[in-house]
Amino acid sequence: MALFSSENPHYKYNRKTLKYERIDNTFKYHLMRTLRVVIFGSVIGFGVFIALIFLIPSPAQKRLAEENDRINSQYQLLSKQLDEALEVMNLIQERDDNFYRVMLQADSIPAALRTGNITNTTRYDQWDNLRTGTIVKETSQKMDLLNRMLYTQSRSFDELVNLSKEHEDRLLHIPAIQPVSNKDLKRTASGYGRRIDPIYKTIRFHKGMDFSAPIGTDIFATANGTITSIGWKQGYGNCIVIDHGYDYVTLYAHIHKFKKGLRRGSKVSRGDVIAYVGNTGKSTGPHLHYEVRYKGVHQNPQNYYFLDLTPEEYDEMIRISSNSSQTFD
Ligand SMILES: [Zn+2]
């Protein structure tokens, strides 16, 4: 250790005296040597100090690390809860698309519209350089996805509420009951289709359904609508035509008398008495001839009694009405 030793004396060559002179006995030499020791010691000490700072965490750092861990596990928990919420949301969406929207004849909502472009954005990149960045990013994405899905779903429900109101109105305007009281179906006389004409005895297409009933029996409007024709019609006798909207029209023929007060333009509701069974026009006995038209095309009325008949009664009606080969017209 030359630095601290004085056993080997230091010499320096003096050009003036041409001699080697001893220098370790001068004040300058001692001062420099002391300074060297002090500076060297300080550098070592400082180095050790810095190393300790980095190796041993301070209480504040310890607290921060603990906090970080707690935040991290809280995020893990949130992320798991969001997974569960998203699962419930998916079930609601499925029910919406495959049940509610099908029932109300609405198109299903495209998946892209339901989820939006949540993952395709740089908004979450700010979390990338954090130690816990991945979990924070994932959780934020899930939260945004759930928000987006909730928004779309609530819009869908708003739409369905409107559709169901419309649907309800539509149901009120579609013919759905029998035009005369026919509890035991005994009044079912003749059905829709090819039948023998009661007068000419030739095969003709019967465009409606006949209900045999005593003169004066109540005739009901089969759905809500407006009377567009009330009076005598060639062949039909006294006749009422009701326009129900939604492209549905019904016709009631061979009427004995119209209900008092009804005229063209009168509004009627399903079940209202509009007239009484008769035998007017081309008719071979007291009966009601009833027609249903959709978009101007004659329909088989027996498909429009769905509020009136159980499936069994419906079967029975088909049997009775197709049995009789001859109509009352
Ligand atoms: Zn008929």
Your description of this structure?
- Helix 2 runs parallel beside helix 4 (133-173).
- The protein is rod-shaped.
- The protein has helices at residues 27-55, 59-103, 111-115, 133-173, 311-323, and strands at 11-14, 19-22, 188-190, 193-196, 203-206, 209-212, 218-220, 225-233, 237-245, 248-258, 267-268, 273-277, 287-294, 297-299.
- It folds into 3 domains: 11-55; 59-173; 188-323, Glucose Permease (Domain IIA) (Distorted Sandwich).
- The protein is an alpha+beta fold and 329 residues long.
- The mean pLDDT is 89.
- The strands form 3 sheets. Strands 3, 6, 7, 8, 9, 10, 11, 12, 13 and 14 form a 10-stranded antiparallel sheet that branches. It has a two-stranded antiparallel sheet with strand order 1-2.
- It binds zinc ion (ZN).
Pick out its properties.
Glucose Permease (Domain IIA); 3 domains; two-stranded antiparallel sheet; 40% helix; rod-shaped; binds zinc ion
Helix count from the secondary structure assignment: 5
**What is the tally of beta strands?**
14
Radius of gyration from the alpha-carbon trace, in angstroms: 49 Å
Number of structurally distinct domains: 3
| Helicity level | 40-55%
- Which structural class best describes the helix and strand composition? alpha+beta
CATH H level of the largest domain: which superfamily? Answer: Glucose Permease (Domain IIA)
Mean pLDDT: 89
| Biggest beta-sheet profile | 10 strands, antiparallel
CATH topology of the largest domain: Glucose Permease (Domain IIA)
Order of helices and strands: EEHHHHEEEEEEEEEEEEH
Percent in strands: 15-25%
Unreliable stretches covering 5 or more consecutive residues: none
Small molecules bound in the structure, each named once: zinc ion
| End-to-end C-alpha gap | 135 Å
Query: What's the CATH architecture name of the largest domain?
Result: Distorted Sandwich
Shape: rod-shaped
